[in-house]
Amino acid sequence: MILICIENKAAYNLALLTNVESIERNEKLQLAVKGVKERFRLTTKMFNTRGIASSSLLKQRGKVLRLLEN
Asked: Which one of 34, 37, 43, 48 is most buried, by most CB atoms within 10 A?
């Protein structure tokens, strides 16, 4: 579970550094963004089903999704 959090933090940092306009033009980056969204969705679901949802994890997920949707 700790590894998943570290992986998500790395994906979050990558998303912050990525130019949104280049994502729209680059198909490979679009697939990577889909992967980031899916990992956050699955991780959040896993934490919620175990009853240990982390507020910081949920905040990070929200930041990434807002960034990727803009």
From this structure: 43
